[in-house]
Design brief:
- The protein has 441 residues and is α+β, with helices and mostly antiparallel strands.
- It is built from 15 helices and eleven strands.
- The chain is 30% helix and 11% strand.
- The strands form three sheets. Strands 3, 4, 5, 8 and 11 form a five-stranded antiparallel sheet that branches. A four-stranded antiparallel sheet has the order 1-2-7-6, with helices on one face.
Length: 441
Amino acid sequence: MTEANQTPASVDLLPANPTFVLADPGSSVRPAPGATDSPTAARFKTALRDWYTLLQGGKAAGQRPAPVVLDLAGTTRALTAGLDPRVTIPRRGLSFIDIPPWIRTQIGDDFNEVMAYPKIDLPMSEPLKDISIELFLPNISLIAPNSITLIETNQKFIESYMVGLNHEFARKLLWRGYPTDQRGSYFRQFWDVRSFIDSEGLSEEPLKEKLYDIPELHRWAPASSLGEHNNRAPPGQTGGQAVLVIRGELLKKYPTAVIFAQHALWPRNADGTIDFSQARLLDQPTPAEEQNPPLSKIRSPLYEAKADPDIYFFGFDLTISQAKGQSGQNPGDDAGWFFVIKERPGEPRFGLELSRSDPLKVFDQLTWEDALPGGTAGQFLSAASLGSVALTTVSDPNDPELQQNADDRTVNAAAASSARWAYLLFRAPILVAVHADEMLA
């Protein structure tokens, strides 16, 4: 009858009783144990077993865990933070106001308006180079003279550098008593974008915003990481961008050279199938696209930089993988991009070539030896020194110099004159296109 024995198992330990009956209290009935239970005893034990089962279940359900020590300090901090109106009011407002995601991203996590602050749009890569060119590009001396290559921007470094600049400038303003909440984005421009060609006709402020390297700092999501805040990259794109590096005398001699990226195409056979064994071709704009080529075919540099005395950097809105293209194993593989250095049209150049190994087909190949046999380059040429030249006749209809050869043979037979000399010495503008895949291992 004790509480500890009130279990279903204790009922099984009770002796059998064939004479057990239910009697009034105080009666003289005394049942005696035996071999079997009477029907009343069997029913009584079943009811008792069920009762004890219910009793044990109730005790288990009502079991209370041991008390724990209350963290009053932590509870106070959580309660204070949870009741902060700067958190609760925006949260309540956004719970029943439907705001488009792109506006929600611009609002950020703080509804307070940032105080007015100075904006400094100078390219902050310049003072970095003034401290040390190795901070701008480690091991820059390893770039070979008279070479062209591609490198990738370190977006994490650029963002950390710009955050540090803004942080230190905010501290300086606070120290000087300037009215500031220290949330201004004073520096957002790392690269020099002053040479950028705007094909959209944007006004000054929208163009600035488009070319900034980082968004305003107070709009960075608290859970974001360095490298995820390229202001010019499409949504969702992280990582660096392709930068063309040219080292040597080329741009000193031709400072007005035009540099751009041009999309590539896979060559096709006569039946229209792609021939992956041949070199890629330039994706030429159509006549209708010449005045304003689409960005899918031609891209000008977004920004420039120079490391004295002879290293030039040109950044493009292309990733390295986009510039390199795909393997060319499938018909849908992109052919990547060429990087082009082109003499500026409209700036005529006159002269003669130093040497030639192939037969002379056009005057563009004319050398000093042709004009002055036995002489040296740079000597004085008299008006009558170059008569008829032995031009090779081109008859192959597939030769790209067929038409030029015909024109040059007409001029070759003309009498000496200033016009003839200008025609002989005029050098056609040179265009050099190097595919990204050739510059990358």
